[in-house]
Amino acid sequence: MTSSPALAGRIEIDTNGIKDVFAAGRKLQPASVGTQVLLMTAISVVTVLAFNMLRPKNKIIYEPKVKYHLGNKAPPRISSSFFGWLPPVLFTKEPELLDKVGLDAVAFLRFLRLMRWLFTLTALLACGVLIPVNYLYTISHRPKYFDILSAMTIKDVKGVRLYTHVAITYIITIFVVVLVYFHWCAMLRLRKEWFASPEYIQSFYGRTLSIRHVPRKYQSDEGLRAIMDGTHMPYPATSVHIGRKVGKLPDLIEYHNNTVKELEEILVKYLKGGKIGKHRPTIRIGGCCGLGGMKKDAIDFYTAKLRRTEAAVLEYRAQIDTRRPENYGFASLAAIPYAHIAAQKFVGKHPKGTRIELAPNPRDIIWTNISKSSSSLFGKKIIGFFWLGLICFLSLIPLFPVATLANLDAITATGYIPFLQQWADDSKITYSIVDGVLPPAVSALFTFFLPRIMRWLSKYMGAQTHTRLDRAVVARYFAFLVISQLIVFTLIGVVFNSVLEIVTAIQHHKANATTILKNLNKLTGSITRTYVSQSSFWLKWFPMRGFLVFFDLAQVFNLIWISIKTRIFGRTPRDIREWTKPPTFEYAIYYSNLLFMAAVGLLFAPLAPLVVLAAAIVFWLSSWVYKYQLMFVFVTKVESGGRLWNVVINRLLVSVMLMQALMILTIGLQYKFKSLQWLSTVPPLLIIIIFKIFLKRKFDNDFRYYTPSEEDVSRAIVHSERADARAHKLEQRFGHPALHADLFTPMVHAKMMPLLKEVYQGRIHEDLQRSGGMRSGIEKPMAQDLKTSEGIKFAAVEQNELEYDPVLYQRDRGELDWDTASMASSSELKNNSRLSYGPGIRESYISSGPYSPGPPTAATYATMDSSQHLMQPSGYFDTQTPTNLVQPTLPYPPTHNSSSSFNPYTPDSSYPPPTHHQHHQSGFSA
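^ thats the sequence. predicted structure below, dont judge the formating
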């Protein structure tokens, strides 16, 4: 031990010994990094080979979208040969992808394309320029502690050579600006194509506005109409609908459906193999841990429970019209351009205290949150942020063992744990494997559940759509990863080294507190060396991320779990149908992980170029794998038209700013923030800030809304008020799902159906009608259904019918029930279904907004209780309108049509008459 007279008799820390320990640890880093790269590469190759062998015989897992797709949107042809999946991945271009997988998936793949080219260019630049500069400088000056990896970093570089790193930062900033702008322009073009696509033009939600926070006195259909009238909106609402309280009905339906699943699981175990089990299944009601309570027959218990819940649901639905209204509602407009123009003008305005905006797809709505009041949401957000902060704080605790494992070689060199030193001496290969694999593996394990917890908390905090929920998860999870995995993880090492320097000063120089504070500037070199040295951890981390990409492709866990479930427990027909459907792609989690990889790669690009090279390789692998999965495996839960794009681009720019801030810190610490070199690192940060403001002003509004021209408005497909009201489209499409959702019907394998008579001891008879839970006209004929004496129906499922019916899948996934049917309302106008309110009205509304002062004029909505006024020969105004009002310019002369109850204008000859299937000519290109 090193000691000084002033500290004789005290226990001292051998600081020189600790420095030597870390020096010895650094010498082991190249071996552990190389071992990790080789090991992960070998495992990845084995995983890909296993995928190629398993894919042809397990198409329902690896290619479910070949069977389950919407309409004519089947994925490209794919061969069953060993590498037959590669040609579709390599040669399918974006226009075809846009039509087959949707804009959300295309936006994700475009983001990956942006990442792979950004990091390819950055890696070529950094590795081609900075590695030679760093290595030659380090070798020529030969610092006390260095190895092959540290020699290629900025750790020991000083003087004018640092201008090279500053210049590289400028060039990387230029790469980011050019590539992001190019892809933003492309995404805006794709977004406009999506607005003009047949799917969106036919959608009912595309021409609907949502109205939230409706005051109590306006909570009725008439109240909503009054609110819309008061906005002086030039486009009439064809129908309005106030939401109704559904109480516990959603919970009751979920309770019923869970009961059905429990009954099915009991029956499939009891009748496994087509034979009745030896012992009738029982269930214990009450008690704890299998002790106490009352034992009952499980089949009779769930059957009685199912009968009661089904009766309760039917009774609840019958009384729904008498229930109180909610504080939200919806208003449908005659055409999609009208809804978007109106929504833009309502931004920042709150008529009667409401919030009016474009309605989301009904499948996207989180119905438990849409009715929450502002005060309720405020309270939930406070509680949610508290729990979010607490969980994030607690999740930092594992960082300490991860940081310790990241320096496992240094701990070994201390000799305090004898078996580690002996292990390192006896078997360097296995020791290097553990040293390389364990730290990133533990880090990945601790972050597996966090995004799902954040998603649950964000939902609790009031996110009203799944799309908004995804945006919240991306923002919060990315922030957590950057703060914990980068900043805090680095600070742990910085604090340790700083404490080490202070202890050295006290023990060897008898320094007091005042002296230490005056000499804190001497710690700057240690701080810089610490976070640069941690690049070796990320060189171990990226190979594991690459392996996880291939592991995701192989879906090993999915195969193993299905095999275990089938052989040990048996699978119900419902299980099989659910597992054969394409799974949902978790955009929020995948985006967050990609953004974090980008943050790490950019952060170390000018400091440790090998890290950005590793990131580029992983991004290239990810782009191929995820393209295959989005084409053949995964589906989008609800298409949002790429709404996550601006969120992820903003986080990418934040990552670039972090890189620039760390570069400012690195140069500033070396030159005490007093040199020209430090000032030269500031402009790139300012460039990105200005660029972000520019992007928001140029793209934000056009990306969020469809901004039609006068020609687009005049050519828009216009739907009639009478058809919307007569079909109750708005009420049915935007009514709470609990009001019309099908209840589950118990399904059993057809071979087990004859055994049900013995199970129910004769209390069962054949039912010639299809069960209520199945959609008539969709399912193929099956064996006869059975009904118990209690009225519970059982649906028989033949062996060849176990997989989900593709036709039923298209109906469940698509918008065939409602959105396509909404086109029928336009047929009420027959071939004269294009209407215009004149450019004068539209321009007045756009320039003045929904609250133009003064008496009713061209933008007045008071006369728009129905669309009859629009159909009059005089245009928007009634024939009794005072002549001093300026009438709008009409795009075509008015005519009468006595054969119809409406009097629509005859379209201009330049506008072809619409048919039921005619849409904008600028639709998707194949």
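The longest strand covers residues 325-333.
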